[in-house]
Input
Amino acid sequence: MTEYQQEQFPIPTPGRLRRELRLRKPPWWMVAGLIVVIIGTWIPLYLIYKKRNSYSTQPKIHYIQDMDLQPGFRAQQPSTLFDDGRAARAPIAGTVARGHLKQDDHYYRGYHTVRKGAAEMIEFFDSVPGRVKVDNKLLARGRERYDIFCVVCHDSNGAGSGLLHQRALTLKETKWVPPTNLLTQEIRDRPAGQIFQAIGDGVRNMPGYKTQISVEDRWAIVAYLKQLQASQPVASVEKKTKTAK
Ligand code: HEC
Output
């Protein structure tokens, strides 16, 4: 026991505390070891920093390989296996992949070609094909698709003052072609097949929506559009939307 601990009421002056209660200093090798360890932890940091700020012509290291890397050809890649040097094989002439025959002109195209003497003419079908059942479900689907794909230009009532049109007018776009007013007698008289074809292939300045809208959905839009036209007053041709509403 130290002199300090023996006393009943020790007076802790700084001098006495330092002398009597001093904890032992760590030995030099412990300090040295600690310094080495601390500096050692900088090595990975340095390596990471260096890797992140250097360039390499080698591909990145892919740690977890899973099934990401497989021997296969990407689109347009060449191959030495075939004489023509192409990896992608062209379909054999005269063949059609299963389910891609699309013989039903009415359903897939909305028109068919007819021979009139020497000339070939296009004739649009004037109805929704029989295999498309026009019921409330289809009309609801058509409305939904119309609201997604057509409303921006043709507006929810079909008159052609959609938001995109209004914006173009605000910006005074000189080359803007206004979306057709779908409520005119002219468009009402269009055969269903022609509307279907216009949606898929586009018409003049309107883009085609074949890739975004399936065949069935395009017919649903046609059916809905006919219903929409019937619910709206006939628009006169002069009232074609040239100004914002
Ligand atoms: C990006 C704007 C835009 C969208 C979206 C759009 N249209 Fe059009 N649509 C136009 C324009 C512009 C015209 C007029 C094209 C022209 O005369 O050059 C047009 C014309 C039409 C016509 C008249 C075609 C004809 O025979 O004269 C129909 C029908 C039509 N659109 C239906 C639709 C339907 C249905 C959709 C939705 C699937 C749709 N449009 C989506 C811009 C659009």
User: Anything to note?
Assistant: The chain has a mean pLDDT of 88. Residues 111 and 124 are 4 Å apart (CA to CA). The two ends are 99 Å apart (CA to CA).
